[in-house]
């Protein structure tokens, strides 16, 4: 029994490759690695405090997932986002979130809704008071409502598919912060979504969610030259 518990703990502990993978992803999200920038195994290994081997495997994984590109004789680089990337991701995201809300609207509790509302209202109050909002904090709060809709869905496949695209969705949120931080409008739209959830009004929620995602996409296309 003791050996089984030890084995279970070992399987639950993140591998060095997974830690390297998560670490590099975070560096990309936080814009410590820029599009078109060469990835250095030595520098990444030193930063993540590990050997080059797991870093190399993590880079290969990110390359296989399409986030990095290898240029012969030059090395591996972070792929820049394209108009096609943005449009394709948003099409999938919109379809998945609209399906997810069909069941999650009945699973999300009032307490969970009010917790997200309180976070959004606090952020808005600080912004209106003149405080400079950190881009990472804004990005995380921006995704709270959407994450709740996806995670509370009864459709497990939606969660799997959304996990695969959320990395780029997070990158787009950071870009939105830079190109045009309309925090008031973004917060207003998220509060509308929360109202729809609390009312358990599925038709109204779908319409508001679709409008919000279309607005987010148009914001990117309006301000970015991708």
Blueprint of the fold:
Layout: H1 2-12, H2 16-29, H3 41-48, H4 52-64, E1 68-71, E2 75-78, H5 83-104, H6 110-128, H7 135-151, H8 156-179, H9 183-199, H10 202-223
Antiparallel strand pairs: 1-2
Shape: globular
Count up the domains. Answer: 2
Structural class: mainly alpha
CATH superfamily of the largest domain, please? GntR ligand-binding domain-like
Write the element-wise H/E pattern from the N-terminal end onward. Answer: HHHHEEHHHHHH
CATH topology of the largest domain: Four Helix Bundle (Hemerythrin (Met), subunit A)
How many β-strand runs? 2
Mean pLDDT: 86
Radius of gyration, CA atoms, in whole angstroms: 20 Å
Strand order of the largest sheet: 1-2
InterPro entries: GntR_C, TF_FadR/GntR_C, Tscrpt_reg_HTH_GntR, WH-like_DNA-bd_sf, WH_DNA-bd_sf
Keywords: DNA-binding, Transcription, Transcription regulation
Organism: Clostridium symbiosum (Bacteroides symbiosus)
Domain HTH gntR-type: 14-81
Keyphrases for this structure?
single chain; 226 residues; mainly alpha; Arc Repressor Mutant, subunit A; Four Helix Bundle (Hemerythrin (Met), subunit A); 2 domains; two-stranded antiparallel sheet; 10 helices; globular; WH_DNA-bd_sf; WH-like_DNA-bd_sf; DNA-binding transcription factor activity; DNA binding
Provide a descriptive summary of the structure in words:
The chain is mostly helical. The chain has 2 domains: 2-78, Arc Repressor Mutant, subunit A (Orthogonal Bundle); 83-223, Up-down Bundle (Four Helix Bundle (Hemerythrin (Met), subunit A)), CATH 1.20.120.530. The protein has helices spanning 2-12, 16-29, 41-48, 52-64, 83-104, 110-128, 135-151, 156-179, 183-199, 202-223; strands spanning 68-71, 75-78. Strands 1-2 form a two-stranded antiparallel sheet. The radius of gyration is 20 Å and the shape is globular. Residues 6-12 have low confidence and may be disordered.
